[in-house]
């Protein structure tokens, strides 16, 4: 083979190698551009938020309906006191709470336990500015719920509502009067003050409950 043909052959091989390198570079660039495009513009639907089924109890006038309606961004004019039960899906950034609210009238409280099944947590709302008689009734109902077979292992969020009223009792007074330390020892419970005019505090209380529910989920998975 002449020197000219050998030279042409080497040049052609160099051309093929260069062409291959260029094609690989272009392919890598395309993959990079596509990955960036997917990351910036095509994230897809966000992951589904976990849902938890809760039961909400408390005496009539404690403010259960108003608090839940405010969390759902409903108009105050649409709030009607619950006489039987109602269900609200309360959305949060990291979870959705399906809350079954039970009416708190005397003739309804004796049927509360019929609606406990399937609950993963409990919200108990009390009027911290109520009369001594009503506070005693609320205390008895909370004690009954904390010891009920279907609720005793569940996390409790206890809301001392109406903290904006002059007669409101402090959280420490509520804790002592309701004997929460000895009664609820070993249980997962959160006692928080709240009112309709402090939504940040209310949302923080529910965030604490969601954290406890998530921890409970993780415990079940580890088992």
Widest β-sheet, arrangement of strands: 2-3-1-4-5-6
Strand content: 15-25%
Biggest beta sheet attributes: 6 strands, mixed
- Secondary-structure class: alpha/beta
Order of helices and strands: HEHEEHEHEHHEH
Please give the alpha-carbon distance between the first and last residues: 77 Å
Helix count equals 7
Integer-rounded radius of gyration: 30 Å
What's the overall average pLDDT, rounded? 82
Query: Uncertain segments of ≥5 residues (pLDDT<50)?
Result: 8-13, 26-31
Q: How many strand units?
A: 6
> What is the share of helical residues?
40-55%
Globally, the shape reads globular
Describe this structure in words.
This protein has helices spanning 3-41, 64-71, 106-109, 132-147, 171-177, 180-183, 199-222, and strands at residues 51-57, 85-92, 95-102, 121-127, 156-161, 189-193. It has 223 residues and is of the alpha/beta class. A 6-stranded mixed β-sheet has the order 2-3-1-4-5-6, with helices on both faces. Helix 4 links the parallel strand 4 (121-127) and strand 5 (156-161). It is globular. Residues 8-13 and 26-31 have low confidence and may be disordered.
């Amino acid at each position: 083979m002449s020197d000219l043909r050998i030279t042409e052959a080497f040049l052609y091989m160099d051309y093929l190698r260069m062409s291959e390198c260029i094609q690989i570079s272009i392919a890598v660039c395309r993959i990079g551009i596509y990955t960036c495009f997917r990351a910036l513009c095509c994230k897809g639907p966000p992951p589904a938020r976990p849902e938890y089924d809760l039961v909400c109890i408390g005496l009539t006038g404690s403010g259960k309906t108003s608090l839940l309606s405010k969390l759902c961004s409903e108009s105050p004019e649409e709030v009607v006191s619950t006489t039987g039960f109602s269900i609200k899906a309360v959305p949060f950034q990291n979870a959705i709470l399906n809350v079954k609210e039970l009416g708190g009238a005397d003739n309804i409280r004796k049927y509360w336990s019929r609606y406990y099944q399937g609950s993963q947590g409990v919200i108990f709302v009390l009027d911290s500015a109520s009369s001594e008689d009503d506070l005693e009734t609320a205390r008895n109902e909370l004690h009954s719920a904390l010891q009920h077979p279907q609720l005793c292992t569940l996390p409790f969020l206890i809301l001392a509502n109406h903290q904006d009223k002059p007669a409101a009792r402090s959280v420490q007074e509520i804790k002592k009067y309701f004997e929460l330390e000895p009664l609820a020892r070993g249980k997962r419970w959160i006692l928080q003050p709240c009112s309709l005019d402090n939504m940040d505090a209310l949302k923080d209380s529910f965030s604490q409950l969601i954290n406890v529910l998530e921890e409970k989920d993780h415990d079940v998975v580890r088992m």
